Amino acid sequence: MTEGIIFSNLHDDAIPELTKVRTMASLPFACRYRLIDFPLSNMVNSGINSVYVVTTRNYQSLLDHVGSGKDWDLARRSGGLKVMTPYMSAFAGTGIARFNSRMEALKSITNTIFNMTSDYVVLSDCDGICNINISDMIAQHERTGADITVAVKKMDVTPEKAARSVIVESDEDGRITEALIRPSRITGEHDVNINIWVVSRRYLQVMVHDAMARNLTSMSRDFLARNAAFAKYMIYRYDGFYANFSSLQDYFACSMSLLGDSGERNSIFSVKNHPIITKVRNSTPTKYSDDAKVKNSLIADGCVIEGTVENSILFRGVKVGKNTVIKNSILFQDTYTGNSVNLNCVVTDKNVVIRDYRTLSGSESMPFCIEKGKMI
Amino acid sequence: MFNKKECVAMLLAGGQGSRLYALTETTAKPAVPFGGKYRIIDFPLSNCVNSGIDTVGVLTQYQPLVLNEYIGNGQPWDLDRASGGVMVLPPYQAKDVQDWYKGTANAIYQNLNFINRYDPDYVLILSGDHIYNMDYAQMLDYHKKNNADCTIAVIDVPLSEASRFGIMYTDETERITEFAEKPKNPKSTKASMGIYIFNKDMLEKFLIADAADKDSDNDFGKNIIPAMLNSGARMFAYRFEGYWKDVGTIDSLWEANMDLIGEEPVFNLHDRRHKVYSRSGARQPQYVGDEAKITNSLVTEGCEIYGEVINSILFSGVYVAPGAVVKDSVVFSDSKIMEGAVVSYSMLDHDVVVGKNAVVGKDRAEGVKIAVVGAEIEIGDGKTVEDGAMIYPGAENN
User: Fold this and answer.
1) Do residue A295 and residue B290 have CB atoms under 8 angstroms apart?
2) Tens-place pLDDT, residues A340-358
3) Is B285 close to A296, i.e. CB distance below 8 A?
4) What number of helices (H) and strands (E) belong to chain B?
C-alpha cells in the first residue's frame, strides 16, 4: 500500500500576481483545473487512496476546491483525503510555525508521519503539470530496492532555469551519484528533478527523525545531495509533457502552448485510463451567439460568447460581450467583459469586470494581470 | 427509525417513451439526454432539491440500466443523504403478488411502504417527461393555504391543443369542479401538467380502493383523480406560468432543445436562480480550432470543433472535423462528424460516426422531417441518410 503527501504552499512566491490570494496548489490552469488536480489525479489514477495535503497559509481557496475529496473518489471512511492545516498547540504562544521547504512541512505533521503504516510514500509538489504513471514508478522503486526514487525529466537547461532547479546526475543503472541544488552556470541537457518522489516509509520516518534531531530543513540539500554516496537514491525517467511555473511569463507561455495542434493538450488530458480529475461545478453548456467568432481557443463550460475570441483560454462562466475582441488572453472564472471591449495579452483573475469600451493590452513577454474582483 | 419528512416526492420514470423511437430503444425516456449536458430527469430532480424536498422515490420499469446508473447515489443533486435522499424503486416480487407496475397509480400503491417510512403529511407525484423549472414549495404552500386534499398543477394551453391533455374545469376559487381526460370539445384551457400534491392519508385511502377494483386501469388521470372528485374531496388547480414542455416526441424534443438558444432563449439555462444539476465527468475543456465557426449554439466540454456549427446543441465530447457542417441539429455525446460531412435538421444519439462527405438529413424547410440516427451507428463515407429517416441502434443501414 502507498500513501501520498502533497505540499500545497511551496513555490507560493513564484507567481505573486496570482498566488497572493491563494496557494500554488489552487492556482487555476487550463479552463477548469487547479494545479493540485494534477498530483491528486496522478495519485488516484495510480491506486493511491490515502492522500495528505499539507498547507500553511492562504488555504481557503484550496479547501473550497478539494472539499471532502469526493470528486477524486477520496471521500472515504478509511484513508481518503486529509487536509493538514497548520497546527498550533495551546502552549505555542503567538507564533505559527510556517514552513518553506518539504522537510519543514513534514516536521509539521510528525504525528501523521510516525503513524503511517504503508510501504511507500509518494511526495509531490504542486508547481508542475504532468500526467505521470506513479504505479510504474513505485514498481521500479520496489524492484531496485531504493530508499528514494526521484522522478526526473531530461531538459535543455538554461542558466536561469538551472538556478531554480535541482539537477541530478546518475550512473548507467540510474543510481544518483550527485544532486546539484540550484547550480549556477550550467547549460545543456540534464535530468531535472520534477518534485515527485517515492520514499520507503521507514526511510521517510528515519529522515524526519534525523532532521528533527539535527535541525535539518531541506530534503534535497541535507539528504539527496549529502547522502547520495551512502544511500540508494534512484532516478525514474518521465518523458511525457511537463511544465513548471516559476513566473507569470512561464504560466502564460505554458497555457498558450495548449492551443493549436492538439498534441500537447492530449498528452496531458487524453492519456488512456489517466484522466485529470477536477471539481465539478455544474455549469451549463457554453452558449455561442449569432455574432460569436471563436478561433484557436480553449473554452470551459458555462460561458456566454457574443463577441470575438482568438488564441485565448476562457475559464468557467466567462461572459464575452457584443463587439468585444479578446486575443491572446487568459480569463479566469466568472470574468465579465462588457460590449466593445478590446483585450490583448491580458490575464484576469476571478470575478474581474471589464466595462464597455475599455481597451487593455500587455505583451507576450509581460502579460497584463488584473487582480481578483477588480472592476475596470 | 426514519426521520419524519413533511413531503416525499415520487417520480414516475418507468415510461417507455415509444414515440421517441430509436432514442429510447435501450434507454428509459427520463434518461434521454437533453440540452448539451442534461437528461430529462435532471429537471424534476433539480426542482425537488431547489424546492427543499430531499426525499425522492424514482419508480423505474422500462430499460432501467442507464437510468439507475445515472441516478446512482444521487450525489450530483445532493441527494446522497443519511436521512432521505434519492431511492430507485423498481417493481419487485412480494409474497402474494408479483407484478410489473400496471399503471401510474399502481406504481405508487406498490411503494406505499416506502412513503410510510418517512411518515409524510404530503406526497408530491411527478413525471419524468417534462422540461421546466418550478418551485414545488410554492405549490405546497398553496395546497396548505387552501386546506386542500389534492392540488394539481395546470398550465394554459391553446384551446386548439386542449384535446391532447387532461383538462380541468374550475370555479372562481380555482377549486376543480370537473375533469376530462383528452376531451373532444374542451371548454377550458387548464391542462394538467401531471404534477400532483396529495394529503398522504387521502392518497393512501384511494390507492387501496383503486387496487381492489379489478376493472381499474390503475392510472392517476383515468381513475384516482375522477374517483376523488366524485367523493367531494377538496381539489384545487395550481396555475403555473413558466416554460413547460412535454418532450415525448422527436419533434417536441428537438424544439425543446432549440428553445435553449437564440438571442433571448425561450428557456434560459443560464439563469442562475434555477440551477439545473446533472451528473458530469471530468472532460477536458472544449477546443475551437482555427478554421472553426460556431454560431447560435450550445457546446459542451470535451468537444473539438474544427468545422462549422450553426443553430445546434452539441453534447460532451463531440468531434466536428474540418470542413464538416452541423446545422439545426442535436448531437449527443462522443459522436464524430468527419471531414466534409453535412448534418442538418437531425438528431444523432451518442457515439454515432458520420463518415467523410456523408449527408444526414436535409435543410430545414416546410415538409422536411427530422432525421434520427440511433446510438453507435456508423454512417459510411459518402452515404446519405434521408430526412425523416429513423435508424435504430444495431441497424445494418450503413
Assistant:
1) yes
2) 999 999 999 999 999 999 9
3) no
4) 8, 31
